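[job 0417] fold request received: MFS transporter
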Amino acid sequence: MRHQIQRALAPVLAGYAFQQTALIGMLPVLALRLDLPPGQVGLAIGAGLLVSAVMGPLLAGGMTAQRLRAALLVQMLASLGLIALLLALGPVGATFAILLAIRVLQGTAAAITLAVAQAASAGMGRPVAALARLQVGPGLGRALGAALIGPLIRLSIVLPILPALIGAALSLYRLGAAAKRMPLPEERGLRAPWLLALAVPFLVQCAIGAGQLGLGPLLAQSYPAAQAAAITGICLGAGYLVLMLVHLFVTPAATAIGPALALLAVALLLPVISPQPSVLIAATSLATGAAGLTIARHLARVIALRPEAARRNAAWQGSSLLAGLGVGASLAALVLPLHPVAPFLLAAGFALTTLLICRRPL
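[job 0417] inference complete; emitting structure tokens
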């Protein structure tokens, strides 16, 4: 019955991915609405990711059906709080503290639901195919969040927040029957997986984070800032669409991650050869698809080796993914002054390092 847990949590994962992507694109609009510096808004948005990286391993191992329902309820309440904050008449006292608290709650709830869904997927008969299907919902959420942010904001600033609220409510409803058929046993302890198991997703996301950060500055060398941002959005949206297709048709049938990592390194070198938008769209699409395939197959392998700690291992894998994304983007920002293509060289280096690591057995 594990597929019922996966299906129950799919709406909240997709809705949160939509909102997370939309919030990043809404940063300037949020700053004006809340009368906060853009840096503070960005810090609050990023806090949700950092909290997810920390709280997933702390809480997911001891998760029960009742606590999972509480996490979904927290996700709903946090989204309602964000809507109320955006609709408030005039700046609210301690606005930054309120926004930060909302994002911390959202990040905690998201970490719990993702870890439980990944562990349930990895416990199915065909774990790789199940994990691939699990990623389709969040991928669709991110793609729609990137594509619809502009039209939705023109109608109302709260519309991009609603998918997370609706998704959490739908998952809470679906979870009732699923949890009764398959209670969630607790996994005691906080022991992390072995270092090599965490290094692969961490380095892959370092490569993706560095490559994504480099897109805008590279395009800004040839296009106005607004146009460069629009093309960057197209690149990211195309990448998420390819990711969904890869998980639907390629990941379940793939048997090795070495070719995917080689493709990831090659794709991240394409912007060094040419900064044309068509090349960047192709590079982002190939890199995102290759990274997604690598991560899904690696997670399935890690959990299969130690099924008694599936949820805890899934939580640690999620933490390494979020940490890698942040580290890769931060390092890319540091090397960016050297040359506009420096982030892509750094990203390709991460991919090649991962390829070398994967030659060793887990």
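[job 0417] notes: The chain has 13 helices and no strands. The chain has a mean pLDDT of 79.
[job 0417] exit 0
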